[in-house]
Amino acid sequence: MKRILSLLLSVLAVVTLFGSLGRLSAHAEPPALYGDAKSVILMEASTGTVLYEHEADLRLPPASVTKIMTILLVMEELARGTFSLTDTVQVSNTAAAMGGSQVYLEPGEIMSVEDLLKSVIVASANDASTALAEYIAGSVEAFVHRMNTRAAELGMTNTKFENPTGLDDSVTEHLTTARDIALMSRELLKHDSIFRYTTIWMDTIRGGAFGLTNTNRLIRFYQGANGLKTGSTSKAGFCISATAKRDEMQLIAVVMGSPTRDSRNETAKRLLDYGFANYKYQRMEQGELPPIEVLGGVSDTCRLLYDGFDLLLDKSSPKPETVVLLPETLTAPIAVGDAVGKIEYRIGDKTVGSVTIYAGETVEKISFFGLFKKMLSRFFLHT
User: Which of 38, 67, 245, 280 is catalytic?
Assistant: First the structure.
């Protein structure tokens, strides 16, 4: 009986061992990375792929992480050329009266757009945020309307903004989610010039008379950190949209509702560490294929082009195989931009992405006289 029991235990141990190895080789389920935060999400910026989430659609107050939308609207107006960084703003009484984090703007003070923007991004200044909102839209109310309109355009379906600062002592419905914050963060990261400000650790305004220190400590203490925005109030707890880039992979880690600043930062670091340890970004570059034969066209061939493609892969994955899917010939007429085939990127029997192959030029259908002329030309060429 003892021998039988011993044998059964040995078999059970072997089965357990092989079961564990199988789970590990299949990219084991990540541990509870969210710590004591109410809601988190980890997103890869280029593809928008969500790598980890916990209660990511829970509507919560975002505190000053709100300012990501404020900053986005400023950056978009700068990109349109509506105003420039060197343009100046006169501070209103409303902006100067803002409490919380501030750079102590005075009513009537003149400050450049760049210094106000820097104050918002680095020091989370509520007065500077309000001054920019009024400068762009004419009033805080009009700016908030634009914030909510832009949120809807970005698919931020669980968000409502009531001010451009995130101060929540006198609002009731100023709420968003970790997923929605990741969406607006991703949009802001498309403006490369934002990193000129989000990576600042210490700087000054007013000609060096007033110092700024970044509220995001990860900028100094986490490898690859390049943004983006912190926030905290008694109602919201401690929040952050933390961004970092390594080996061309840009990650966004959103943490909401942490009880302390340190636990918020540690949760953000765990999320980013998990992403960098387990995934890799690969850019499949745009290019051109050999020309394809065209039947019945004024030209015998047509250029073929394809766009680039962003891939997010498990770090253990091999490089994808490129498979070109094209007919042997095309028939005129062909318009530039027409889809004529596709390229699939495969790992084993799994397709991990694809792009369209399109005509790089227009090839008109040949007329009867054009065909006759071409045939005549070929005849004399070969005689």
Answer: 67
